[in-house]
Amino acid sequence: MKKIVMLHGINHNMFGKRDPAQYGTVTLAEIDAKLQALGKELGVEVESYQTNSEGDMCERIHQAYTDNAAAVLINAGAWTHYSYGIRDALAILTVPVVEIHMSNIHAREEFRHKSVFAEIVKGQICGFGVESYLLGLRAALSAM
Predict the structure, then answer these.
(1) Could you give the 3-state DSSP secondary structure of residue 84?
(2) Which residues of the chain have pLDDT under 70?
(3) Is 49 part of the annotated catalytic residue set?
């Protein structure tokens, strides 16, 4: 069974508590459960990982490469806008990478409008809440 790696970035462990106007009240565990259920339906395994450490995120991206993951989904949170370290780690991957955001980053603060990942990812899905993750999984599968 093909493995899709879902990478959750900084502060995502606080989903359900953090800024419900932007992110709703869904928890990270609920997001992961929805992804795993859809993955099962689509015939893939979804393995989720969350960290608040930028270095650990880079290490997990390297592991996805070593493990021959079929695709990578990433919601890096604030790192999206400035982490060239994570960008360079993602650039190592030779599989589809889909950038995901629950909120519409283009309708928020100016600093959130730019993604340093945009040039290297297959695509970006934002603004649909939890549905962004499910759309991202479907997009990654269609790009494989």
Answers:
(1) helix
(2) 19-20, 22-24
(3) no
